[in-house]
Amino acid sequence: MGGVYDVNSVWKVANLALHCKQEISRERPTMTDVVAQIKESMELEAPP
């Protein structure tokens, strides 16, 4: 996992992780949303 990463991608995943830690389960994202957001973050990392 070494290398250079887009800071926006890192913040997006960090924010997602915080949302997943919500105490009230209905405030957490669904797994479908989690997968979609991770895919979006990975697209930010893909070379043009």
Could you characterize what this model shows?
The chain starts with 6 loop residues before the first helix and ends with a helix. With 48 residues, it is an all-alpha fold. It is elongated and about 40 Å long. The protein has one domain. The longest helix is centred in the C-terminal third of the chain and has 15 residues, at 31-45. It has helices at residues 7-20, 31-45. Helix content is 60%, strand content 0%.
- Total number of beta strands: 0
Element-level helix/strand string: HH
The best one-word shape is elongated
Q: How far is the first residue's CA from the last residue's CA?
A: 20 Å
The number of helical elements comes to 2
Strand content: under 5%
Provide the helix percentage: 55-70%
Number of domains: 1
Stretches where pLDDT falls below 50 for ≥5 residues?
none
Let me know the largest β-sheet: none
Based on helices, strands and strand pairing, what is the structural class?
mainly alpha
Radius of gyration from the CA trace?
12 Å
User: What's the pLDDT, averaged over the residues?
Assistant: 90
Organism: Panicum hallii
Protein name: Serine-threonine/tyrosine-protein kinase catalytic domain-containing protein
What's a concise summary of this model?
With 48 residues, this protein is mainly α. The chain has helices spanning 7-20, 31-45.
